[in-house]
Specification:
TIM Barrel; alpha/beta; eight-stranded mixed β-sheet; 20% strand; 8 helices
Length: 229
């Protein structure tokens, strides 16, 4: 497990809970809009933080924080992720996992072992646009297995999409809605330019507030609750 950073406290990453955030190094996608290029590309990252140091820090937060978010990068590319989460759970924290859903077998293992209290899965686009947006070969069967598993898990969750206007035309949200039909919560995330994995995305834009409101209303035909952030 390579850990690239720890945010000591966050009030926004875990809905309803004060949390710490652990960022793992490495990802199996290459989304151009990603704001954490050093976590996606291990060769850009220096020395990792030892797991024992992270656990020692978390031990000092017992009683002060409620949860821990495991983010990245993509945490599920690490075979020892379940062991890390189990160690954190032993300290008494609840766990939120941020994932792209490409490893449904590991996700199933963690659900079966009751390691997860909240799962947030990124939805990149429609089945036809997924590989273009991820900029990497994608197994859509794995993505769909994760979506259905998360919906049926009985564990709190949300799906979320970072919206780059040139990548997701308004008409594409119908196909995304069909992918997520029956989900309880879906978040539309406004793309913000700045430091990105691909420099070309510094010139990209997203939809206006009014357009986002129209998309949000459209998505609520498919999901129980849709928000814009």
């Amino acid at each position: 497990m390579r850990i690239g950073g720890v945010q000591k406290v966050s009030l926004i990453d875990y809905p309803g809970k004060a949390s710490a955030v652990i960022f793992t190094v490495g990802c199996n996608m290459r989304c151009g809009y990603c704001h954490n290029p050093e976590l996606v590309l291990p060769e850009r990252y220096g020395d990792a933080i030892p797991v024992d140091d992270v656990l020692a820090f978390l031990a000092t937060r017992v009683g002060k924080l409620e949860g821990v978010v495991i983010s990245g990068g993509e945490p599920t590319v690490h075979d020892d992720l379940p062991q890390l989460i189990a160690s954190i759970k032993q300290l008494g924290f609840t766990i939120k996992l941020d994932t792209n859903g490409t490893h449904p077998d590991m996700l199933r293992q963690m659900y079966d072992d009751k390691l997860l209290d909240y799962v947030s899965m990124d939805i990149k686009g429609t089945p036809d646009s997924y590989q273009m947006i991820a900029a990497y070969p994608i197994d859509m069967d794995a993505i769909m297995r994760s979506i259905e598993m998360i919906k049926k898990s009985g564990v709190d969750y949300e799906f979320r999409t970072t919206v780059v206007k040139s990548q997701i035309p308004v008409d594409d949200f119908k196909a995304i809605g069909e992918m997520l039909r029956g989900a309880s919560r879906y978040a539309l995330q406004k793309f913000r330019s700045g430091r990105t994995l691909s420099p070309a995305f510094r010139r990209e834009t997203t939809y206006s507030d009014e357009e986002f409101e129209d998309i949000r209303k459209q998505m609520e035909q498919y999901v129980d609750y849709c928000l814009v952030r």
